[in-house]
């Protein structure tokens, strides 16, 4: 009785072929650890926080003022200007920091894309701040730019100023620290995007009469722009969740009361986890909006191959 | 648009070193307006280096380049006004075909209407009419090559430089584009320097060949001369003298200066340079004929390849030397036949002069 068996086998083979056609085969199983990892470390906490943010904590200030509806915590956040304004405070820090990091990394990476002696040393020096972490960077900043730091002593000795200039414990201190810790990322990313652009394109442009600025403006920049958009998004997101430096070198109850401080305050000083979750969700939403806008702009650019080779 | 814009481009002892190595060693060459010159040599012989020095993409380490009496080797590439076609085409991927071709005109600040007219003309010349609005990524290799050529010639540059422009194409397309390049040169008459490692390409395209080996010029001349009278063993190997038989020079026969004929063992050949004790006889596969005649020798047929009207035959002489033949006679492996070759087709070089690399010989 081989006849009835045959169609069944054929059906199985056909199914496997159809799946393979859509890129599904057994090697997909290799993705299982990654999926488990993402679910455990990202999706579960996110879903947990999301549902928590819709369950205002009984007895909290939110419940007393705005009731215990699912959106009471969100309502409380936007009704309270002290909380609401943390969004602007954070954007005022993270947007300039992200923008500066991207813009500053372009000329430096552009100069450094070729091979030359000492490139590795310079790259290492530029990248060291990543390994230091934000706390150490903030301490260094205090020692260097604080009221009795070297910078102020130098300025006073040279006679440029009479009194120490306040570089720390204000907006500028945090911005500096965001630039110091975000720039290496921006630089490394920009450098790798740049080295993905075929250098003969600029040579071709040169033989067609384009000077260095025109080569940069018409060839390199347009090919680099999509990469710069991604770089901006990454440094922006890093800067948006700023916490240690906003506290250490900033003015955490005033001009640098960023949104993560508000979340920390809700969670660990008021023990209102539901409010803290709501703030975290708002934080994520703001980041998503900015990233979405940037990526939307990126979608309008040329994003194909850039003839890349090292 | 036709006719060359220059009357003379002179390269005087142009050299370029990379560290210790001289990639280009004292290149002397005078190119006349409208000429098509091919730089030919194996990979790594300095062809691209020479072209990049001409384009201004590589500074010279010695020598000078003058265009109609004006020294140009210190000018940056954007001020030389030479068009260049790159091996990988180097089309701007984010610009349409039209924008690619028009880029040079835009840099030269040519007016919109005029630029449009010239781009149209170039698009027509390279027969890209249907594809002008596409992007490079949407084109085949041959079409990309046409865009690269159009982009380089639309400015009617004083000099067009091409670096192995056909080496990324398949065999059929290569032949097609070769004809195309020749046609464009005949139409526009632009002075062209063309780099290739393919002798057939160089012979069929160029008015004059420059053979390079390890950065040094081996021979300069029109294709016919280089083909029939190679200056040395290296050039001979490059020009299809695939068989090289190393033989002792017979006493008293071929060493006399002025006498072109030389006897090597059983062979009689034509001397091309001063010889020592032993010499090398270089013979083209297609110069052999089956049957008795001058320089007759008996060979055993080992391998036969069908190649249409002819057969490519690998045979072995009684002395154990391997011979490559191209003959019309139908041979079979195992045959023992007599082949012959006229003395003027046997070129004799000193045995210690350098040979061409295996893959081209
Ligand atoms: N940028 C470079 N640095 C060091 N050596 C180089 C460089 N470019 C070329 N060379 C050397 O110069 C020689 C000639 O190279 P090239 O002109 O590219 O040869 P071709 O184009 O004839 O294949 C080669 O030996 C190559 O290794
Ligand atoms: Mg080359």
UniProtKB/TrEMBL annotation, chain A:
GO terms for cellular component: plasma membrane. InterPro entries: MetI-like, MetI-like_sf. It comes from the Bacteria. It is found in: Cell membrane. GO terms for biological process: transmembrane transport. It is a multi-pass membrane protein. Pfam families: BPD_transp_1. Keywords: Cell membrane, Membrane, Transmembrane, Transmembrane helix, Transport. Residues 87-294 form the ABC transmembrane type-1 domain. The chain crosses the membrane at residues 28-47, 93-110, 122-145, 171-194, 223-243, 275-297. Belongs to the binding-protein-dependent transport system permease family. CysTW subfamily. This is ABC transporter permease. The lineage of its organism: Bacteria, Bacillati, Actinomycetota, Actinomycetes, Streptosporangiales.
TrEMBL record, chain B:
Gene3D superfamilies: 2.40.50.100, Nucleic acid-binding proteins, P-loop containing nucleotide triphosphate hydrolases. InterPro entries: AAA+_ATPase, ABC_transporter-like_ATP-bd, ABC_transporter-like_CS, ABC_transpr_MalK/UgpC-like, Mo/tungstate-bd_C_term_dom, NA-bd_OB-fold, P-loop_NTPase, Transp-assoc_OB_typ2. One of its GO terms (cellular component) is ATP-binding cassette (ABC) transporter complex, substrate-binding subunit-containing. It comes from the Bacteria. Residues 9-239 form the ABC transporter domain. Pfam families: ABC_tran (PF00005), TOBE_2 (PF08402). Keywords: ATP-binding, Nucleotide-binding, Transport. GO terms for molecular function: ABC-type transporter activity; ATP binding; ATP hydrolysis activity. This is ABC transporter ATP-binding protein. It comes from Actinoallomurus iriomotensis.
């Amino acid at each position: 009785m081989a006849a009835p068996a045959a169609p069944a086998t054929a059906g199985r083979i056909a199914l496997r072929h159809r799946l393979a056609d859509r890129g599904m085969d057994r090697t997909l199983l290799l993705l299982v650890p990654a999926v488990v990892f993402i679910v455990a470390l990202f999706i579960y906490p996110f879903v947990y926080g999301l549902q928590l943010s819709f369950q205002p904590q009984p007895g909290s200030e939110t419940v007393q003022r705005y009731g215990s509806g699912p959106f009471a915590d969100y309502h409380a956040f936007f009704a309270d200007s002290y909380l609401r304004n943390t969004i602007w405070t954070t954007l005022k820090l993270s947007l300039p920091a992200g923008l500066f990091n991207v813009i500053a990394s372009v000329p430096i990476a552009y100069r450094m894309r070729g091979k030359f002696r000492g490139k590795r040393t310079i790259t290492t020096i530029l990248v060291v701040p990543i390994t230091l972490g934000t706390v150490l960077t903030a301490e260094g900043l205090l020692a260097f730019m604080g009221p009795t730091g070297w910078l102020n002593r130098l300025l006073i000795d040279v006679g440029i100023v009479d009194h120490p200039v306040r570089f720390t414990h204000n907006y500028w201190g945090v911005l500096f620290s965001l630039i110091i810790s975000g720039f290496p990322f921006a630089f490394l990313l920009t450098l790798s995007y740049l080295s993905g652009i075929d250098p003969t394109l600029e040579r071709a442009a040169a033989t067609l009469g384009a000077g260095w600025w025109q080569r940069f403006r018409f060839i390199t920049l347009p090919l680099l722009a999509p990469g710069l958009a991604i770089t901006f998004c990454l440094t922006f997101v890093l800067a948006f969740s700023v916490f240690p430096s906003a506290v250490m070198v900033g003015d955490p109850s005033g001009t640098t009361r960023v949104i993560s401080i508000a979340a920390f305050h809700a969670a660990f000083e008021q023990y209102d986890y539901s409010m803290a979750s709501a703030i975290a969700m708002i934080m994520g939403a703001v980041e998503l909006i900015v990233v979405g806008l940037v990526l939307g702009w990126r979608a309008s650019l040329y994003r194909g191959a850039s003839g890349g080779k090292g | 648009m036709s006719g060359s814009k220059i009357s003379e481009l002179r390269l005087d002892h142009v050299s370029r070193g990379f560290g210790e190595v001289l990639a280009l060693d004292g290149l002397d060459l005078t190119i006349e307006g409208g000429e098509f010159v091919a730089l030919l040599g194996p990979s790594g012989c300095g062809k691209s280096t020479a072209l990049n020095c001409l384009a201004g993409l590589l500074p010279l380490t010695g020598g000078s380049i003058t265009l109609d009496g004006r020294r140009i080797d210190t000018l940056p590439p954007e001020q030389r006004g030479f068009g260049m076609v790159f091996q990988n085409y180097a089309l701007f991927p984010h610009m349409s075909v039209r924008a690619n071709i028009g880029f040079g005109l835009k840099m030269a600040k040519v007016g919109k209407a005029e630029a449009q007219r010239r781009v149209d003309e170039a698009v027509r010349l390279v027969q890209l009419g249907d594809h002008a609005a596409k992007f490079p990524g949407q084109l085949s290799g041959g079409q990309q090559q046409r865009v690269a050529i159009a982009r380089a010639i639309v400015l009617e540059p004083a000099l067009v430089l091409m670096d192995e422009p056909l080496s990324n194409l398949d065999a059929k397309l290569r032949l097609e584009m070769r004809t195309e390049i020749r046609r464009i040169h005949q139409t526009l008459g632009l002075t062209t320097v063309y780099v290739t490692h393919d002798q057939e390409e160089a012979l069929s395209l160029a008015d004059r060949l420059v053979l390079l080996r390890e950065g040094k010029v081996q021979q300069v001349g029109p294709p016919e001369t280089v083909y029939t009278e190679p200056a040395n063993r290296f050039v001979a190997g490059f020009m299809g003298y695939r068989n090289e038989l190393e033989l002792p020079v017979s006493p008293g026969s071929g060493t006399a200066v002025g006498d072109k004929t030389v006897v090597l063992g059983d062979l009689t050949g034509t001397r091309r340079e001063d010889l020592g004790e032993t010499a090398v006889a270089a013979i083209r596969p297609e110069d052999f004929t089956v049957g008795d005649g001058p320089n007759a020798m008996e060979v055993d047929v080992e391998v036969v390849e069908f190649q249409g009207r002819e057969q490519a035959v690998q045979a072995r002489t009684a002395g154990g030397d391997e011979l490559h033949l191209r003959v019309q006679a139908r041979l079979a492996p195992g045959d023992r036949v007599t082949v012959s070759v006229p003395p003027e087709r046997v070129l004799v070089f000193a045995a210690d002069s350098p040979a061409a690399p295996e893959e081209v010989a």
